[in-house]
Specification:
Helix content is 75%, strand content 1%. The chain is mainly α and 327 residues long. It folds into 2 domains: 160 residues, Ferritin; 159 residues, no CATH class.
Length: 327
């Protein structure tokens, strides 16, 4: 069991024969073509121009595979040994496309660049381990194709993604980011910052005890975070609304709700009541202006309206907490 865990069942790359290196290259090109086609399918609905890029990248990998098979047939015959990247110790791995879904535009572009860099290093090392001139030339050419600054990804991007197309897809990606992360996070931050003002400051002015106030704030923040997170997950599966994964939205909402409440609860870890309260006032001020800035920056809410909504709402809740605490 331990030997399997530490990879003892894998072959070291240095032990592979020239035939096995070619077989490994063939299977790797097959896998990469399959991954690029999966990326294209996943992007096609929202990012059709980038999907076309990955379709042609898959075709290029098919061409590499065909060239490798031709060399193998010429040197070793038609029987290709079954050897894949998971059989070789230290060889780079590829994540199945279903593990990186939902497919974000920046994410798959970065993954494609990483795949090219890894393939380049493989072909460089593979070329060092072959003595046949034709095979060595092919491997070197494939290394250059993967690494070239005029690589297929860049050339195809220029062909399919002009200024307008890239701007369109970047706009779609930005909208998805706002719907999946910014909007739920903002809702959580607003709820955590504003709704916990009353219980925290009511506890502070009612007891004058910083530790008890902190415990109230901690409980209110964590409780609100859990509640808001589960509510977000249950409210919308994201299929029709296009708001993305409910799990991601729920986690974002829950964390930001808890953070919003903890911001003005943590100062009450300071034993001196008025020092803690003064710092909490400053934190509340920063939180409210941060919410207004996010609304203006990502939700395109005018500064005047965002400020009025957040500051007025926070002031009313804060006043309610002080009145109740001093009753």
């Amino acid at each position: 069991m331990l030997s399997r865990f530490f990879g003892a069942h894998r072959r070291p790359f240095s032990s592979l024969t020239e035939q096995e290196i070619l077989a490994l290259a063939i299977s790797s090109e097959e896998d990469d073509a399959r991954i690029y086609r999966s990326y294209a399918d996943g992007l096609r609905e929202d990012f059709p121009h980038s999907a076309a890029v990955f379709d042609q990248m898959a075709e290029e990998e098919d061409g590499h595979r065909a060239a490798l098979i031709a060399v193998h047939q010429d040197r070793f015959g038609d029987r290709i040994p079954l050897i894949r990247r998971e059989h070789v110790r230290g060889y780079y791995e590829r994540k199945p496309d279903w593990l990186v879904r939902p497919l974000g535009l920046d994410r798959v572009r970065a993954q494609a660049e990483l795949m090219e860099e890894q393939a380049h290093r493989f072909y460089i090392e593979a070329a060092k381990r072959t003595e046949d001139a034709g095979t060595r030339k092919l491997l070197g050419d494939l290394a250059a194709a993967e690494k070239s600054h005029e690589s297929l990804a860049h050339r195809l991007s220029e062909r399919h993604l002009g200024i307008e197309e890239r701007a369109e897809e970047d706009s779609t990606a930005h909208k998805q980011f706002v719907l999946t992360y910014v909007q739920p996070g903002l809702a959580g931050l607003m709820d955590g910052s504003v709704s916990t003002l009353a219980p925290i400051f009511a506890a502070a002015f009612a007891t004058g005890d910083t530790w008890q106030t902190f415990l109230v704030g901690l409980a209110a923040s964590i409780g609100a975070g859990i509640s808001m997170g589960f509510t977000e997950v249950a409210s919308d599966d994201g299929v029709i609304s296009g708001r993305g994964s409910p799990i991601k939205r729920g986690i974002t909402t829950g964390l930001m709700t808890a953070l919003g409440g903890l911001g003005h609860a943590l100062p009450y870890l300071i034993p001196h009541f008025w020092t803690a309260t003064a710092i909490a006032f400053v934190v509340v001020f920063i939180e409210l202006w941060a919410i207004a800035w996010i609304q203006n920056r990502y939700m395109e809410t005018p500064w005047s309206r965002a400020t009025f909504q957040v500051v007025l709402g926070g002031a009313l809740v804060f006043a309610a907490g002080m009145l109740i605490g001093n009753a």
